[in-house]
Amino acid sequence: MKKNIYINGLGNISPQETFYQAMGETVVKAEGAFMTCQEPNYKEFIQKKLLRRMSRIVRMGLATAHKALEDASHPPLDAIISGTAWGCVKDTEKFLETIIEHNEAYLTPTAFVQSTHNTVAGQIALLQHCNCYNMSYVQGNVSFESALIDAMLLFYDNKASNILVNGIDEQTEKLGILLERLQCAKAGERVMGEGAACFILGAEQTSNTYAQLTGATMLYRPKDKTSVKESIQRILEEANLDAQAIDLVLTGNQDQSLEKELCTNAEFSSYKKLCGEYPTSTAFATAIAAQLLKGDPSTKKALEINKKDVQHILIYNNHQDVNHSIVLLSKVDN
User: Fold this and answer.
1) Nearest to 67 by CA among 9, 128, 134, 132
2) Dist CA 265 CA 267 (whole Å)
3) 293 — alpha (psi -120 to 50), left (phi > 0) or beta?
4) How many CA atoms lie within 13 A of 226 on its CB side?
5) For residue 71, how far is the Cα from the chain centroid?
6) 265-319 confidence digits (pLDDT tens)
7) How far is 236 from 252, CA to CA, in rounded Å?
8) Sign, CA torsion 320/313/329/209
9) pTM for this predicted structure
10) CA 79 to CA 60: how far, in whole Å?
11) HSE-up of 41 (CA within 13 Å, CB side)?
12) Domains of the chain (ranges, CATH numbers)
C-alpha cells in the first residue's frame, strides 16, 4: 500500500560546501577532468582511535550519517540501506597491491574485509548500535535508486518507521588514471566527481521535514523514449500529478529533449555541474532538491533557478541510454 514518505534529515559531502551548510556562497567549478569533495573535520564525529583505521569513503559515510541523524533528532532506525557502485576503492587497491607484493601469501583478512561494498553500512550500524535490517546495493549507476526503492517498499509493507538511506562513491588517484585512459573523464567535456549523501526517511512528517519522497523508479535499456515517458507519467499519476505540475527538472543529461518535451512548464537545471559524473550522483541531486523545496536560497542560486515557488521537482538521469533513473520530490507545509 502506497504511503507518504518524508525526508526528515540529510547529510551531504560533495565538491561544493554542502556539509556544514546547504550550499556555499561560491559555486566550485571543475579544474581539469575531476571534482573532489570538500570534507569536514572528522574528529568532530568520530573518535581518533577509530578514525586512524578508517578509509576515506567510510569516514564520509559515517560523517553524513551522523549529520543526517542529528538533523532528524536521532530517531530510532528500523533499517540502514546503502547504495554504492565503486565501493571502497582505496581499500580494494590496498588489498590487490598486498596480494601482488606478498605473492598471494601471508595475507591478513583486514584489508579484504574493509574493501567490501557493504563496509560503510556495516560501520554505520556498529557506531550507531543498530541491530536492524542492513543492506547494500551494488547496482552500478542505479545503486542509490535501488536502495531508495527498497526503503519505500519497507514503508509500504509497514516494516519501518525510520530508515537511513545513502548513496556514496569515492575517487582515487589510480581510479582517475583508469577513467582517463578509458576516456570516461575529459576536461571540459565529461568531468568525473564523487560524493556521499545520506537521508533519514520517515513515515511521519516532523518540524524539520525537507520534502516528501513522492516516487522513484528505474529502467534498464528501454526500447524507446516512449517507455521512459510512460514511466515518468506513471509516477506522476500515482502522485495525482501531471507533467505540467513539475516546476523544476534536475537533469543529469546533456540531451534534455525528452524531459523538455514532457515537462513544458518546468525550469531545467543540470545538477552535475555541481558534483560531476559518478554512479550515485542522483543522491546528491536528491539532497539539493530537498534543500530547495525547504526554501534554501543558496541552493536556488547555485542551480540558477528563477521560479519563486517550486512545489514539485523531477530528477532524471540517463546513463548512456542504459540505466534511466527517475525520482520525484514534492514540497510539504511545515
Assistant:
1) 9
2) 7
3) alpha
4) 1
5) 17
6) 999 999 999 999 999 999 999 999 999 999 999 999 999 999 989 999 999 999 9
7) 19
8) positive
9) 0.95
10) 19
11) 2
12) 6-202 (3.40.47.10), 213-330 (3.40.47.10)
Name the band, by pLDDT with cuts 50, 70 and 90, for residue 93. Answer: confident
Q: What is the pLDDT of residue 215?
A: 95
Helix axes 119-128, 56-71, angle to 10 degrees: 50
Radius of gyration over every alpha carbon of the chain, rounded to an integer in angstroms = 19
| C-alpha cell at position 7 | 525526508
Q: C-alpha angle with apex 134: 129 to 137, nearest 5 degrees?
A: 140
Predicted confidence band at 154 (pLDDT cuts at 50, 70, 90)? very high
Helix axis angle, 281-293 relative to 143-156, nearest 10°?
60
Do 272 and 316 meet the contact criterion of CB atoms below 8 Å apart? no
Contact yes or no for 81/137 (Cβ under 8 A): yes
Q: How many residues does the chain have?
A: 334
Longest dimension (CA), the chain: 63
Residues 6+ apart with CB under 8 A from 8: 71, 72, 75, 162, 200, 201, 202, 205, 206, 208, 209, 210
Q: What is the pLDDT of residue 1?
A: 63
334 confidence band (pLDDT: 50, 70, 90): low
User: What per-residue confidence (pLDDT) applies to 239?
Assistant: 93
Query: Tell me: the pLDDT tens digits for 155-187?
Result: 999 999 999 999 999 999 999 999 999 988 988
